[in-house]
Amino acid sequence: MNLNASQPLSMGDARLVQPWRQALPTLLLLLVWILFLYRDTGIAMATIWARSETFTHAFLVPPIVLWLVWRQRRRMAEQTPQPALGVVLLAACVAFGWLLGDLAAVNAVTQLALVSLLVLAVPAVLGWSITRLILFPLGFLFFAVPIGEFVMPQLMLWTADFTISALRLSGVPVYREGLQFVIPSGSWSVIEACSGVRYLIASLTVGTLFAYLNYHSTKRRVLFVMVSILVPVIANWMRAYMIVMLAHLSGNKLAVGVDHLIYGWLFFGFVIMTMFTIGIRWAEPDKSDKVVEAERARQSSALPFSPAKLWTITACFAVLAALPHIALGTIDRAEGDARVSLIAPRALAGDWHEVLPVGAGFKPAFHNPSAEINSSYAGQDHTVGLYVGYYRHQDYDRKLVSSSNVLVVSKDPQWAQVASGSRPVTVGGQMVDVRAAELRGADLYSQVSPPRLVAWQIYWVNGTLTASDYLAKAYSAFYRLTGQGDDSAVIIVYTPKNPAGGAEAVLASFLSTNYAVINELLLKTRQQ
User: Are residues 369 and 483 in the same domain?
Assistant: First the structure.
């Protein structure tokens, strides 16, 4: 049935149309209200779409969702909107989740919460029977959330492992350290662009849509989605290996620079087109579910439509969506806007005293701190570097835990991280895990014995220590929610690695001796 048709309506048709004339405008108003309240989150999403090639495809997701919903318009028109009160409770949980995500400045959480609120508005206003008809389009909307780059480090490691193994099987000698390796024709490094995360996210998005449109059995859909995940990962491994081999065999005349990426995209496009060409052979014809839909229509139509219920649920949903912003404004006003100053002490406990920088001017890549120090101290016949990055009034531009805050960026011209891990250390009288890393100076191909550093990293969140990104975010949200502010810091200690070893013992001694002084410095800064 077409609601826009001009032919006269029967009594049954009129009974169906009248609820839709009230429900559709109400749903539209609620969606506009949500987008208005969470406009900063929505703008942040669109900004990432525009600046990141990994998520450019997200601009197409909303139009695709609207088209998928439009395809179900006739089946939806056979149903009577029945607002679902229980959805309001789910919306309250999601809104609270958005508040926690914003307090901790976690883009993924706030953006997932925004999309979830938009999706939940549909069953809240139209009911579950109608929502089931467009469940996939609503779920597909989550592909608009720019998330997935957290798998990049693992993908980079897998790419390096496969490429190096394949080169060795091809008879090419390889020397590897971390994500960098050297072959007779030159040195290579697996960076973010080599991870294949762009291919993976694009393939998963398109593959999921392909499976929905061409298959009807859940088994075939799930299998094809799994294929759309595995194929780009394996294809990226092959791409990386082929690019290195092509450059090696051509004397570094091919597959370097711009054509490095061009060859990669051409290869990926060929692989994906092949995957879809094969997948279409098992496409299933469209099946009619008229009997099932007619039964649902009768069940839905048997229930009377209540305008009062519609507006009550919509109003409750709208109020709950606004509450996190009211709470956030109250928290922000209570925290004030005091400036932070952090001065490195001239001397520490245990006869450690400030000296010239260690590590050829090494400085961790932590961006936009409220205050920071990067000093070096000598004592016990050793030298240790101390970096403290202090963060207050964190937002999406200035925050302690971020994917861009690392020891060394992948394109750093002076240092490269070649190993990482964790180890338990006694700090401030308690046993905590610290992140441990080994850094190598300069390019692997240019020096026989480059300088090396051993570095340990830990977070300080209002006096609580943790090495976990997730716990640091959770502590930050909790402290802000309870009115204690979000003062946090990263503490990094580093010292030169020598062939005789002992760097870890030096760092352990430095921390156990001087953490009380560092903690006191941070607590005084917190009180400013």
Answer: yes
What per-residue confidence (pLDDT) applies to 279? 80
How open is the CA angle 420-425-429, to the nearest 5 degrees?
155
Q: Within this chain, do residues 139 and 179 fall inside the same structural domain, yes or no?
A: no
Stated pTM of the model: 0.85
Q: Does 75 share its domain with 211?
A: no
- Residue 453: beta bridge partners? 439, 496
Domain membership flag for residue 298: no
Quick check: is 371 in a domain?
yes
Cα four-point dihedral sign 69, 73, 79, 82: positive
CB 230 within 8 A of CB 255: no
Contact 510, 351 (CB under 8 A): no
One domain, residues 142 and 162:
no
Let me know if residue 271 belongs to a domain: yes
Q: Which two tokens stand for residue 436?
A: 């441990």
Q: How many domains does the chain have?
A: 3
Residue 371 near residue 341 (C-beta atoms within 8 A): yes
Domain limits for position 120: 11-147+304-333
> CA 23, CA 81: separation in Å to the nearest integer?
7
**413, 436 in Cβ contact below 8 A?**
no
Residue-level pLDDT at 12: 46
Q: Which of 115-119, 268-272, 287-291, 453-457 has the lowest mean pLDDT?
A: 287-291
* pLDDT score, position 1: 39
Closest CA to 358 of 491, 494, 490: 494
Q: What angle do CA 325, 329, 333 make, to 5 degrees?
A: 170
* Residue at 292 is within a domain: no
Q: Under 8 Å CB-to-CB from 211, ≥6 apart: which residues?
A: 220, 221, 222, 224, 225, 228, 279
Residue 430 backbone dihedrals phi, psi, to 5 degrees: -130, 150
pLDDT one-digit tens code per residue, 151-181? 888 998 999 999 999 999 999 999 888 888 8
Query: Residues 156, 125: one domain?
Result: no
Query: Does 100 lie in the same domain as 160?
Result: no
Residues 122 and 154 in one domain: no
